[in-house]
Amino acid sequence: MLFLNKAVLFPVTSSALLGVEEGPCETVNLTVELGSSAKLLLPGLCSNTTVKSLDLKGNNLQAVGAEALGKLLQQNKSIQNLVLEWNSLGVWEEGFSLFCQGLSTNRSLQRLDLRNNQINHEGAGELAAALKSNSSLQELDLRWNNVGLLGGRALLNCLHSNRTLRHLELAGNNVPSDILKAVGALAALGMEMFTLTPALSTSEQAMDHNQDRQSILAENQSRTHVLSKEVLSLKEEKAKQFLNLMDTIDRQREEITRSSRQSSARVGQLQEALAERHSIVNSLKAKLQMAEAALALSEQKVHDLGELLSTAKQEQATMAERQAKDLQQQKQEAADRETKLLRDLSAANEKNLLLRNQVDELERRGKAQQDQLFQLKQDLTNTVADLRLRAVKAEERLDMEKRRFKQGLDDVEFLRQKEVDHMTQHMEASERSMQERIQRLEAVRIGLEETGAESGQSRSACGTRPGRGGVDQSPEPGQAGRGEAVTSCPQGAGGDPAQLRLLSLQWEKGEGEALGHLHKAVS
Q1: How far, in Å, CA of 331 to CA of 253, rounded?
Q2: Distance (Å, rounded) from C-alpha 456 to C-alpha 219?
Q3: Contacts 24+ apart (CB under 8 A), 366-373
Q4: Are 130 and 164 in contact (CB under 8 A)?
Q5: How far is CA 490 from the centre of its chain?
Q6: φ, ψ for residue 47, nearest 5 deg
Q7: Which residues contact 35 (CB under 8 A, 6 or more apart)?
Q8: SS3 state of residue 110
């Protein structure tokens, strides 16, 4: 391992690394600030074949250093681990573009650390384009940059073409969680493909990759076409909603201007009235100066006019307060309307963002379905042969089962028809018995109604008949029979309601049993 500390003097030429070019060290750790000196230092490593790891953490490489790193990646074939943390490479767009070009042609680098380099979405797009061509990089650390939504999508799309990248870190980049999950899933899938197919040659991998790319490209084009139509329709709807909001805002502004004009007209009228009052006061003052001889009378008149003036001023003040309150209320209403419109606009923006998230979710699901379809195709090719071998045996068994099933079906049909005939006969018999029972209950009910009517008539007759014998008098022999007849009427009348209630309960019970039997027969 070679360490260059701050005691090293710069500028440094490429001859300073002659010992590094063919020396025994495998790791170079530069802990000083190289700055523009990287242009002189890094070319010494281009032809080196022993250095496996290079650590340039916190060296402020700038644009010249990024360009030198790009050339180093194009020419060096031994470096496998490159640490570039805390170098702000994303600030220098041209230099970072050259660095990405060198990364796209490199075939030896396996781990790249680009943490805290201020890489934005444009730099992430260039890095994704480089990863599509790179076939050696396995780990990429992009934490604590500014990749954002667009950069996350670009990196997600490049993973469909890159089959070697197995670990991608995107934390601290303002990337949505669904894109992070999709990146993790695709990276894990790439790792499984890498472990399952180690014996494939490079030509076979290239052919498979080309076929996968063509199929994925066709499916992506069709889906992007459909999604673009949906996005256009959504944009049209949002434009219509925005135009409607703008129309309502314009109408409300017109109403506000109209109300302000009315209030200004009212203020003008009040000012005119005030001017008239001032002219009256001035005329009164002139009359006061002319009437100095009649001082007592003029003072009285002035006092009266002063009172009138004070009342007028009070009225004017009250009117001004009312106008101010009305104007404040109108302003409050306008502010409320404006806040409501702003809330509606924010809700529309949130809905638009939700729709975008749904589109991203649909894309992710589509990609997952593509992977499942590829796996199902492989399973289908494996199972077709087995199914063809089992088809002949299955046909023979099917013929035998058809014969058995047909015989069993005939037997079941005969038994079912027999059971149906039995059930129909049972239902008809139960229906006849129920009808007869209902008729008997109807006859009982009619008889009960007739007995109730007769008992009512007997009660009325017993209540209207006068009694001749008193309590303490002894009745005659002829009158005793009448008294017994009179006392027998209430007893008979008192027994009829219990009998009627008992009969009605029996009738309701019979009707309920009849309905229950009918339901059982129907079921």
Answers
A1: 11
A2: 93
A3: 366/219, 366/223, 367/160, 367/182, 367/186, 368/185, 370/216, 370/219, 371/189
A4: no
A5: 82
A6: -100, 10
A7: 59, 60, 61, 62, 65
A8: coil
| For residues 109-129, average pLDDT | 94
CA distance 136 to 284: 105
pLDDT at 484 over 70: no
**Helix (H) or strand (E) run with residue 28 in it:** strand 27-30
Within 10 A of 493 (CB to CB), how many other CB atoms are there? 17
Alpha carbons 87 and 85: distance in angstroms, whole number: 6
Indicate left, alpha or beta for 336 from its phi (over 0: left) and psi (-120 to 50: alpha): alpha
Polymer length of the chain: 523
* Partners of 140 in the β-ladder: 112, 168
Residue among 105, 97, 107, 113 nearest 29 (CA): 113
- How many other CB atoms are there within 10 angstroms of residue 222's CB atom? 10
pLDDT given at position 15: 40
Axis crossing angle, helix 121-133 with helix 93-105, rounded to the nearest 10: 20
Alpha-carbon distance 344 to 415, whole Å? 70
Bridge partners of 139, per DSSP, are 111, 167
Backbone φ/ψ region at 439: left (φ over 0), alpha (ψ -120 to 50), beta? alpha
Q: Pinpoint the alpha helices (H) of 33-140.
A: 38-41, 62-75, 93-105, 121-133
- Cβ atoms of 51 and 19 closer than 8 Å: no
**Residue 418 binned pLDDT confidence (cut-offs 50, 70, 90):** confident
Note the Cα 161 to chain centre separation in Å: 31
Counting Cα atoms < 13 Å in the Cβ hemisphere of 230 gives 13
- C-alpha 504/C-alpha 510 separation (Å) is 10
Distance of CA 68 to the CA centre of its chain: 48
Please give the Cα distance from 207 to 198 (Å, whole number): 15
> If you search the block for the tokens 């084009």, which residue do you land on?
221
Residue 501 vs residue 429, higher pLDDT: 429
Q: 231-250: string of b/e by CB count within 10 Å (b at 16+)?
A: eeeeeeeeeeeeeeeeeeee
Non-local (6+) Cβ contacts of 72 within 8 A are 42, 43, 45, 46, 79, 102
Whole-number Cα distances in Å, 126 to 136, 175, 345: 17, 17, 35
In this prediction, residues 445-453 reach a mean pLDDT of 84
* Three-state DSSP class for residue 167: strand
Residue 20 is which amino acid? V
pLDDT surpasses 50 at 16:
no
Residue type for 87, please?
N
**Structure-token pair, residue 81:** 């681990």
**Residues 293-344: tens digit of each pLDDT:** 788 887 888 888 989 999 999 998 999 999 899 999 999 999 999 999 999 9
Distance CA 247, CA 236 (A): 16
Give tens-digit pLDDT for 47-70.
888 889 999 998 888 889 999 999
Whether a cis peptide bond, with omega within 30° of 0, leads into 490 is no
